[in-house]
Amino acid sequence: xxxxxxxxxxxxxxxxxxxxxxxxxxxxxxxxxxxxxxxxxxxxxxxxxxxxxxxxxxxxxxxxxxxxxxxxxxxxxxxxxxxxxxxxxxxxxxxxxxxxxxxxxxxxxxxxxxxxxxxxxxxxxxxxxxxxxxxxxxxxxxxxxxxxxxxxxxxxxxxxxxxxxxxxxxxxxxxxxxxxxxxxxxxxxxxxxxxxxxxx
Length: 200
Description:
single chain
């Protein structure tokens, strides 16, 4: 495992505990709103946090994708909805005559702040996902180069009949076959050039 991914994973694990605290603190918003939608969101946040924590430990590509997509799309979008509802909602307009309306809005805004923390954890999970994806792509390219090199080495000691049989079976890439043919034709071309120079 590369050192940069190791450090990023360790930081993500530490942030996972903070995310769990934010998920529990989000229940304070449910206490203020008393909405079943908020309760369902808080429960799903706990499940998503558990999935994300396991994905950070195992560096699971799909787990990180699910966690980052949920926290950024759902939690981030819901917090924007909360802000719009707090400052421009009908409840706020109806309660302007009450002196407690301003303090109630402040309490609702503060109790919804854990959603911002969960959204921030999702951003870091997305960054870790990008790092893991780049590492997987680099490993696939390295494995492909290794396979081509091994196939080329096998081709150097193989006879023409073995090469043709492997080519018919599709076991040897066309690029390796072309490289082997070029190596085989190079001595022949050198001999022909030498004979032409002697005749000249």
